[in-house]
What we know:
The structure is a single chain. This protein is 15% helix and 37% strand. The protein is α/β, with parallel strands linked by helices. It folds into two domains: 3-92, Beta Barrel (Elongation Factor Tu (Ef-tu), domain 3), CATH 2.40.30; 103-237, Nucleotide-binding domain of ferredoxin-NADP reductase (FNR) module (Rossmann fold, 3-Layer(aba) Sandwich).
Amino acid sequence: MVTRIMAKILSNKNIASDFWLLTVGDIPEQKPLMGQFYMLRAWDAEPLLSRPISVFDADEGTVSFLYQALGRGTKMLSECKAGDNLALLGPLGTGFSGVSGRTALVGGGAGIAPLYFAAKTIRPGGNPLDIFLGFSGQPMLEERYRPLCNTLTVTSGGFITDKVNAENYDYILACGPDAMMKTLAEKCRGLPLRLEVSLESRMACGLGACLVCSRETRNGNKKVCKDGPVFNAREIYGP
Length: 239
Ligand SMILES: Cc1cc2nc3c(=O)[nH]c(=O)nc-3n(C[C@H](O)[C@H](O)[C@H](O)COP(=O)(O)OP(=O)(O)OC[C@H]3O[C@@H](n4cnc5c(N)ncnc54)[C@H](O)[C@@H]3O)c2cc1C
Ligand code: FES
């Protein structure tokens, strides 16, 4: 069930260059699923649209978001202080499906955000899990990801996809720049594994009503906010 929530900000910390980690409380019982997101709004009228941000972590009554302060909306988010109110709509979207067997999580830049909650969800099932995080600048949050996996590989500059041996896995879940996910899809072509990719798109309603986030796929036009943001890579990049 999607809920409109007026949440209280518990903390909002600058953790590296333009990356911030925001935690809110007062979240109703329903826990998000891995790969889902919320529409966030820390302002009244302007900017018009709320901003979609993935669930970085969720616990009883709290949700955390890892975001890059890029433009007007996310910079306004970064100015919020503990005790301020934040309007949330969510949890939204279709996230990662369940995994079994050998799994890799591959993230680039802000795309590492949904993979922390994915790792926390997958790991207790006992699945062997490797995590690959790629950054263009200074790496961050390695100490949070390391206890959740068998191996953690981090790159600063270069291509994180060069480190992934796709033959080793039954599942790969990925989030990052389109070029990164396209390269992964090429590496996985012909292999008996499932690659799932979390896509980004401009969004307005976040609920499947406005078509702003519509994306062409092999199975016709899909709404990134409702049919995704997570898709089987074959649907996006071909078999
Ligand atoms: C499902 C989903 C989950 C997301 N999760 C996260 C997350 O966990 N952490 C995070 O840092 N970001 C995430 N994003 C991206 C985030 O929503 C955008 O960076 C944000 O909306 C930009 O808003 P702004 O007001 O700061 O930027 P604007 O002023 O609107 O734009 C600033 C710059 O960012 C670009 N931009 C705007 N929106 C997007 C977008 N959706 N994707 C790519 N570039 C964009 C613009 O073209 C422009 O160059 C997610 C996006 C989606 C669709
Ligand atoms: S953002 Fe409105 S349909 Fe997806």
